[in-house]
Amino acid sequence: MSATGRTHQQKITSIVLADDDQDDHEFFKEALHEIAPGIKLTIVKNGDELINLLRHYLPDFIFLDLEMPCKNGLECLTEIRSNVLLENIPVVIFSSTTRPANIDTAYEMGADLFFIKPSVYKELTSSIHAILSLNWKDPSMIKEQYFINGRYVAFM
Predict the structure, then answer these.
(1) Which residues touch 138 (CB under 8 Å, ≥6 apart)?
(2) How far apart are CA 97 and CA 103, in angstroms?
(3) First-to-last CA distance in the chain?
(4) CA atoms of 58 and 94, how far apart (whole Å)
(5) C-beta separation of 68 from 19 below 8 A
(6) Where does the chain show beta strands of DSSP type E?
(7) Which strand ranges, in their side-by-side order, compose the sheet holding 91-95?
(8) Residue-wise pLDDT tens digits, 55-86
(9) Closest listed residue to residue 138, CA positions, set 115, 156, 112, 114
(10) Mean pLDDT, the chain, whole residue set
(11) What's the predicted TM-score (pTM) here?
(12) Which CATH superfamily is domain 14-152 in?
């Protein structure tokens, strides 16, 4: 349980997607609606919008792109993890980068999972479904599974 008394049960009712790519918004929205139509999705287009939103809204889950205008994903992640009201919200990096150094850095800065954006809609749908089906009661256990041979790896 966090200092705020908020715990993250398996039941996810609200997600924020922070991403500046309009096509990614549409694909993510369609995929989420297909697998979990009851989850409320809020989309922000840059890091400033995300941080402003989080000042008055606490989602159950955040999907966060690394490359965004105003504030990038790592800057947002730093702010989220340093705020007692936000620090326990699961954050999944949702990025097109496959560079191992970027993946390591994101995990080291507090990401709970690193998800490389698939180029095929069906893969996106099945991946979001799999991610949301994980046991998010203890995100550190999920993160630990992706530390292999001394390096963090992306969700596959």
Answers:
(1) none
(2) 8
(3) 28
(4) 19
(5) yes
(6) 14-18, 40-44, 61-64, 91-95, 113-116, 147-148, 151-152
(7) 40-44, 14-18, 61-64, 91-95, 113-116
(8) 999 999 999 999 888 899 999 999 999 999 99
(9) 112
(10) 89
(11) 0.89
(12) Response regulator (3.40.50.2300)
